[in-house]
């Protein structure tokens, strides 16, 4: 029996409903309900979600809730929170919610409460980050640390890099942060050129401690430090590690006393709440890091308890399913009108696409509907002068999230009003568009008429509108609000995974490329002409061999 959700009655009803709604314009929905904003917005955990500018009605929401019920969303949510091994292909729980469980109630994995070990690592992070910040942790030559270099990739890079950038206003004034992820020597090389070895601390972050890029970067950084300071003993004062793999860390040459532990039930892209957040704690202080955790915890409690119709991640997840599965919109844009969130779209790309980019259900059946959105985005105001043309007049349906801070981190006269007016103008224009008649009037008023108006100008100046947006608004990007926003998207992804019946916590899709790379490495090093793999791969490899110096 095929138990794909797409074969359910709830899915079929939504399909018919979408066909009816496809021709309805957002203008009409607003015209029909003068209180649409009041009816389709909800506030929780310091975040206002206005989802009124979406192509949906209250009937849509009722039908989407039926789909969530069909998918057993409430049951899967319970399983997530109680530490069941819902990442079944790796036989692991997905307990990032425990890392930020500030109410500290017991959460068990295999019968053991994980909270005491989480709290012990948090205490160790506090002690270490305090000592770096107050200057009592000294480098090998006795100087306080000034530069923090995180070496990691994927989840061991994107989360901490995004958060430290977002919370730059909270940084310790003596400290500078750097993130090395790419294995291209340019990345590490450019950063090393800026560093003083006597005042630099390297944080090697890798859940597995087997990731090729991270280990190579860490090895080169270690050698650079030893060359600069002339003594291998310097490593102990300039290198710490964050990992689940103690043996690999010590084999690499970092003392286990300088290691911060986390656990296999923390997925890489869900790990910034764990010791992987150490660079965050060092840069903004442990109190602020704990505020980040508190914001996420508040969202978790909201997700766990709020009714579906007032539940931010449930609403956002269901709206995401609506566009992806029923409108077949292939992508989703995230557009922060908050420059501090410049790296948020890049961070979300891993969270969303590594979690939801799956082609089979939990049971291993091929899906017959698209799964993950292709997530993309950039700070809104810059985007307006780059890719918004496509949003306004292109041919794709691109649902977008606008993230808007009422206050900026830096209160420069006139700036924030410019940000806010642009953000509101864009969601309005995307929704309303500009009809043929309105465009004609606008051209007339500029003195354009006749043939020029009708054939040369008019078609190019009409805006279809009807582009859907969510607006997420908050007072100011504090550590707590940032924690809430990140957890909101994590739980939104979880809701979508449940609706589509897929496991969002594994990532087997990244393995094949890694395996092939390991077979090509020896071929690159060998002197002979290569004739393996296919003619293109061999041809390119031999071309490299011919032309590299
Ligand atoms: O290759 C993808 C991935 O496995 C991510 O899921 C993970 O965040 C990243 O690599 C880094 O892995 P690690 O922390 O083990 O170095």
Highlighted features:
five-stranded parallel β-sheet, binds 6-O-phosphono-beta-D-fructofuranose, alpha/beta, single chain, 549 residues, 24 helices, six-stranded mixed β-sheet, 13 strands
Structure commentary:
Strands 1-2-13-12-10-11 form a 6-stranded mixed β-sheet, sandwiched between helices. It has a 5-stranded parallel β-sheet with strand order 6-5-7-8-9, sandwiched between helices. Strands 3-4 form a two-stranded antiparallel sheet. Strand 1 (41-44) and strand 2 form a beta hairpin. The longest helix is centred in the last third of the chain and has 22 residues, at 479-500. Helix 13 (278-284) crosses helix 14 (286-305). 49% of the residues lie in helices and 11% in strands. The protein has helices at residues 9-21, 26-32, 36-39, 58-70, 73-81, 96-99, 115-133, 158-166, 185-192, 212-229, 235-238, 246-252, 278-284, 286-305, 312-326, 344-356, 380-384, 388-393, 415-432, 436-445, 450-461, 479-500, 511-525, 535-547, and strands at 41-44, 47-50, 108-109, 112-113, 147-151, 176-180, 200-205, 239-243, 259-261, 331-337, 374-376, 400-405, 469-474. It binds 6-O-phosphono-beta-D-fructofuranose. 6-O-phosphono-beta-D-fructofuranose (F6P) binds at residues 153-156, 206-208, 211, 214, 268-269, 354, 507, 510.
